[in-house]
Specification:
Layout lengths: L7 E9 L5 H11 L3 E13 L2 E7 L2 H14 L4 E4 L5 H13 L9 E4 L17 H11 L2 E2 L3 H8 L6 H11 L6 E4 L8 E8 L2 E8 L9 H14 L4 H17 L22
Parallel strand pairs: 1-2, 1-4, 4-5, 5-6, 6-7
Antiparallel strand pairs: 2-3, 7-8, 8-9
Helix pairs in contact: 1-7, 2-3, 3-4, 5-6, 7-8
Length: about 270
């Protein structure tokens, strides 16, 4: 990491008007890590801590224009991809990645959080787009950050414990992602465990489970934190370690907003100016 350099991360995701998840969580996280955040909005959602109430689509042409505008002028050191709910959007991102030679680029990492469901259970990925997601993973080779339900869908197996998490990772790895970071928060085990499967090795991250309803946007936040640290030339395991601790603290000091799954505190590591 070069001293005083400002690194650039492009977040591709849906908008969460309540600020807890999606592109808003991405940009807050990128700011917390001192990187320059840019955004490509794939969809507009009317949502809050109680759930997703409506989704408005963005035209495919406008999504491509946003991607081209950011990458052609500002440039990127890492890319984080979140809500991509339609097959055509995966095709557009693949085309842009090929245009700017971002695939298998050793200097530019791509992190894909395969967002399929909102915290309240609302489906965000259209069923027809699942095959497009799998093709995107094979074509672009991103670092994949699924949660348990997403990994179950991709691996076509149930995941109830750490052993099954590792089996699922090996199955998903056949789709050729660069690495897999599987989040274990949905497990009913007493302790929280996340795992990284990279270069045919497993790395485990254990912590105490926090009894809280304030978990809205944790997946978006973790993947953005990983992307921010990869942009700074951290290894995948180092980036995950930093991101893991950041999200844990953000959950612990959440502001308790809303009547449902509340947002976390993205700015716990930032000193206020007033």
């Amino acid at each position: 990491m070069k001293k005083n350099k400002i690194y650039r991360v492009l977040a591709i995701a849906g908008s969460d008007c309540s600020g807890g998840a999606g592109i808003q969580a991405d940009l807050k996280t990128l700011t917390a890590f001192g990187v320059y955040g840019m955004s490509v909005i794939t969809a507009l959602t009317a949502q809050n801590t109680l759930g997703v109430h409506k989704i408005e689509n963005i035209t495919f042409d406008f999504i491509e224009k946003q991607l081209d505008a950011c990458i052609s002028d500002i440039g990127v050191d890492a890319i984080k991809i979140g809500m991509v709910h339609k097959s055509e959007i995966f095709k557009i991102i693949t085309k842009i990645c090929k245009r700017y030679k971002l695939i298998n680029n050793k200097k530019i990492k791509i992190v894909l959080d395969p967002v399929m469901f909102a915290k309240g259970g609302h489906r965000l990925l259209e069923l027809e787009a699942i095959e497009a997601l799998k093709k995107f993973i094979k074509d672009v080779n991103p670092i994949l950050t699924p949660n348990i339900p997403e990994a179950e869908l991709l691996s076509e197996q149930k995941i109830l414990n750490l052993k099954q998490m590792k089996i699922a990772c090996k199955k998903i790895h056949k789709m050729q992602p660069e690495a897999i970071i599987l989040k274990g928060g949905h497990l009913t085990t007493r302790k929280l465990v996340d795992i990284v499967f990279s270069e045919n090795k497993f790395f485990e991250f254990h912590s105490k489970k926090i009894n809280t309803k304030n978990t809205h946007g944790t997946g978006c936040t973790l993947s953005s934190a990983i992307a921010a640290n990869l942009a700074k030339s951290k290894s995948i395991v180092e980036a995950m370690e930093i991101a893991h601790q950041y999200v844990l603290k953000a959950v612990k000091v959440a502001p308790n907003f809303g009547k449902g799954h509340g947002p976390i505190n993205h700015y716990h590591n930032i000193k206020s100016y007033s």
